[in-house]
Amino acid sequence: MTATVPPETGPDEAFFRTRGVVLVLRDLQTLDWPTRAQRAGLTTIGTHIFPHEVAAFLQADEGQAFLEKCRTLGLQVEHELHAMGDLLPRELYDRDPSLFPMDAQGRRVRDYNLCVSSETALEIVCENAARYTEWLPSTTGRYFYWIDDGQPMCRCPRCRGLSDSDQALLVENRMLSAIRRVDPRATLAHLVYATTLPPPLQVKPAPGIFLEFAPSPGNMTGPCGNGRPAGTTPPAMASCSTISMPTWKSSVRTGPRCWNTGSTCPASPAGSGSG
Ligand SMILES: [Zn+2]
User: Fold this and answer.
1) Alpha-carbon dihedral of residues 274, 173, 144, 273, nearest 10 degrees?
2) Ligand 1 centroid vs 59 CA: distance in angstroms?
């Protein structure tokens, strides 16, 4: 979920209009979270981790009761999901390994993500993203179908010229148009996290892609990268270890390759054929 900051805030108004908690299912199934969230002044509960497990939970009586309680209490419900393992089912590897990412040694890998140069893979991912959007509607219209947790993207000859961030954004642009056929107001997160910490440089975000800044691994008690013992900043964090999150976000939005200008996303450089 994102922190929505109003332009001006009165003395009695909350500064952040979206205040939420993201809960894995094993936590969500323990306590009366909606009541606690409302009592704490939160606006939103996000479910987590995988689409298939959240869909199963919400289709059961327990999940329906959770949704009803959130509705009654006026709480928004979003779903923050490491999704590629569900959007491109792993068993498809046996039929067509070219749908899956290539590692640095030239092997197609079943376990995570996809080859973004495979049009077939993109079509399958989009079809399943639309299906999950039917099963897991977001009450805010914000959707979160992330790449697999901390895993690299594809290094095949057709993909390796794109960074992991560019590859993720390429997929997100395609997914956004697919899920808008189900929810016309949908927006979709580009997750800045682990392998996608550097900004995308070659792929531009389609209108409706928003930035979700979750700099992991890191210390969230101060500016990005601060608070870690000297010499322990992970390489992926080095580029943003001395600047604060707002500065970094601003630089992404206003740099020479604008983050989201509202312009039409150019055709995908890897959008045809299979890799
Ligand atoms: Zn590839």
Assistant:
1) -10
2) 35
